[in-house]
Amino acid sequence: MAKGKVGKTVGSLGDYLKEQRVGARLSLRQLADQAGVSNPYLSQIERGLRKPSAEVLQQIAKALRISAEQLYIRAGILSPDDGVGGSVELAILSDTGLTERQKQSLLDVYASFLALNAADGADDATPAGAENDAEGTAPITTEIDPDSDNRVTNEG
Is the whole model's pTM more than 0.70, yes or no? Predict the structure, then answer.
């Protein structure tokens, strides 16, 4: 069932890309050259047969002079419901120090945390860690003593 959703997302991405390319009066070959991807690969993206990476989408967006964020949303990388505009996701996607696999892993972990917090928020309105403060226990902090390079633990 999830595969059908991905196919539908990619298909709508492909339709959107083709629409933008035709509107920009670019041939498939011209856009492929400008985006730095192969002509067959771009064709497969437009036909919904391939799901491009965030990096490829960014290159295509630059060549088309359109918002990369819109392509990320259409590709299912970003959610339009992110409220803040997906600033965490955009930061991950724009980080040149990460590989595409690392970016996708971080996005998956972040999405799972959001889903977990949404589920927890529905069950309990108490912030995490508030139980300890309510019982009178102080948080434990660990600091590094700059003079000795030893860790100092404060309890209370």
Answer: no
